[in-house]
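Is NAP placement plausible here? Inputs below.
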Amino acid sequence: MNLFIPRTFMALPLRSSRGASFCGFALKCEGGVSMVQGASRGIGLQFVTQLLGKKDKGHVIATCRNPNGATSLLDLKKKFDERLSVLQLDVTNENTIEASANSIRERYGYLNLLINASGVLSKPEVLQPETTLSKVQKSSLLFAYEINAVGPILVTKHMWPLLKLGGGSGTERDVAVVANLSARVGSIGDNQLGGWYSYRSSKTALNQLTKTVAVEFARRKDPIICILLHPGTVDTDLSRPFQRNVPEGKLFTKEFSVEKLLSIIDRVKSNDNGKFFAWDGQEIPW
Ligand SMILES: NC(=O)c1ccc[n+]([C@@H]2O[C@H](COP(=O)([O-])OP(=O)(O)OC[C@H]3O[C@@H](n4cnc5c(N)ncnc54)[C@H](OP(=O)(O)O)[C@@H]3O)[C@@H](O)[C@H]2O)c1
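Reply from A.M.:
I modeled the complex. Tokens:
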């Protein structure tokens, strides 16, 4: 899958001579450069759709495990050929993460926004949300942990230098943003119902890892903040097998949820670093 070189960019002061390198000049794209990881379907695909559709500027890099099979993403690529790049990335394969970082470095030189949207709740024969301790298996705990916690943090590690160079330049924010898609069930303080051991604990781990990165970025004075987002219960493949008990009016469309989440990202300030927000902007206890 080829990346494109955007034509609409503008000169902006760079913090480092290692900045964007189109045509050999230090240039930054108007509207910024955003990456959505886990963009083949569901909430990730909706982020890409809204980042492209709601604004007429800015470039989006969408990553997914199998670009050739991501038909909706490829349809978007046809429509927004100049502003959308698609790269292959599987969070369980660090080489693909590193290769994506290298491609982005070569073509853009920096990032202003990273959204980690990939995640798994169930997979036939591998992971079923556990209703009781007796159903907990080492393999399903590790499977959930690898995709939901380890993956996003490795992506953040490899994109870090690019985010540091990007900061808030070309956008309306002061800082670059890492937004990791978590889930309210990852909150220990909010755990009233129990169950879902693998998914729940993998999101708790993601929360702790993201908070720890946020502390490090702040200590280093890097122009990056990290937040965790709970999208609500959203009508996607992930929630579909479990929608029976969702109260009326509590099952959101992807369009509604992502609109809310993007407004949180757009308004985020430095003192939001390390916070865990629900779709409505309310903070969720750890
Ligand atoms: N939907 C909800 O109600 C809800 C609620 C709370 C939190 N969340 C969180 O929101 C995020 C998005 O969920 P969703 O509802 O959009 O789920 P979804 O529709 O099932 O989509 C999951 C995405 O994750 C990708 N993915 C899975 N394994 C991957 C891997 N190894 N490497 C890269 N990508 C991988 C999938 O790619 P493939 O197409 O290749 O499988 C797909 O793009 C998740 O983190 C989820 O935990 C969702």
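Short version: Residues 138-166 form the longest helix (29 residues).
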